[in-house]
Amino acid sequence: MAILCTTDQLQSGEARGFEVEGTRLVLINHRDEFYLYHNSCPHRSIPLEWMPDKFLDVEKQYIQCATHGALFRIEDGICVSGPCVDDHLDPVPFEIKDKQIIAQLPPSIPVENV
């Protein structure tokens, strides 16, 4: 589990990137509902933004991949335009407790020397 921020720190129409233990995430507040995804375009497995926290299209209706312009619905992460149509962003489970947004990340798996 990782506390990302509080609900008051991300206004409607805003998105913010986080990195937790090497995992890149994008948190979006869309119409006062929160959505959390892995920050990785399914087309090339690269981060979605080209500048920090610039994840949304101009109208703030879609998540936009800065590399190829793919558009993803905020509500479910489905790609509706671009090179990965019908693919999707990977959602990350989270909870809101006492206004804190807490990502439910899987535990790190130690790498053993072989």
Task: Report on this structure.
The chain is mostly beta strands. It has one domain (2-103): Rieske [2Fe-2S] iron-sulphur domain (Rieske Iron-sulfur Protein). It is 0% helix and 38% strand. The protein contains no helices and 9 strands. The protein has strands at residues 2-6, 14-20, 23-30, 33-38, 62-64, 71-73, 79-81, 94-97, 100-103. Strand 5 (62-64) and strand 6 form a beta hairpin.
Based on the model shown, name its key terms.
Rieske Iron-sulfur Protein; 3-stranded antiparallel beta sheet; 114 residues; 0% helix; single chain; mainly beta
* CATH topology descriptor: Rieske Iron-sulfur Protein
Uncertain regions: pLDDT < 50 for 5+ in a row? none
**What amount of the residues lies in strands?**
35-45%
Total DSSP helices: 0
**CA-atom Rg in angstroms:** 14 Å
Mean pLDDT, all residues:
93
Instruction: Please write the CATH class name.
Output: Mainly Beta
Structure class: mainly beta
Which secondary structure elements does this structure contain, and how are they paired or packed?
Layout: E1 2-6, E2 14-20, E3 23-30, E4 33-38, E5 62-64, E6 71-73, E7 79-81, E8 94-97, E9 100-103
Antiparallel strand pairs: 1-9, 2-3, 3-4, 5-6, 6-7, 8-9
In short:
The strands form three sheets. The chain has a three-stranded antiparallel sheet, with no helix packed on it. It has a three-stranded antiparallel sheet with strand order 2-3-4, with no helix packed on it. A three-stranded antiparallel sheet has the order 5-6-7, with no helix packed on it.
